[in-house]
Amino acid sequence: MNELEGNRILIMDNNNLEFCSQHDDVYSSEEVFKEYDMILIPDWVHREISHSQKRLHYLASVPIPYFIVSEEEDYPELVGYQELRLLELFFHASSAISPARKLYSTLKKFYHEHDDLPESWIEDFYEEGFEVTSGTDLRKNAGETSILVLTYLLLHHFSLVNRKYHHFLQ
Cα separation of 130 and 50, whole Å? Predict the structure, then answer.
């Protein structure tokens, strides 16, 4: 993760990719993404992207590397495996009226009773915490929540790296 410092990172959103793919004649991938060094795509966002061949084709034309970031595998590592902190981030990133907020309470209670979260708590959070988009296996607002959590994680990571660097210089 430290290799990312100084790089210009874009966290991809399905809606932006959809817009660009619909207007590829005006927004070529070479032009749109030329200012970035890499793209991070949360897995739930990639699931949304995968529901359209046009979006997948546009993504394949992007001239910079992109990485699909797993909420279940990569997010815990980015928070130093402090899963209660990660649960708090998911809580704050979720809509106040979503079922995710109710599920948060259940998971927090479980943590206080067992001093740990269930093994599959992140998967459960997405499966039970977001409404199913009709006719698909997608979850309403799951991608947005993933983007916000990843943003929080990256901001935290780079603020720690910068503090250590500035402390080293003094």
Answer: 19
Q: Mind listing the pLDDT tens digit for each residue in 92-140?
A: 998 888 888 889 989 999 999 999 999 999 999 998 988 887 777 778 8
Instruction: Give the three-state DSSP class for 96.
Output: coil
Rounded Cα distance between 19 and 22, Å, is 5
**HSE of 159 in the Cβ direction (CA atoms, 13 Å)?**
7
Does the predicted model carry a pTM greater than 0.70?
Answer: yes
Q: How many helices (H) and strands (E) does the chain have?
A: 9, 3
Q: Comparing C-alpha atoms, which of 138, 133, 148, 136 is closest to residue 94?
A: 148
DSSP 63: S
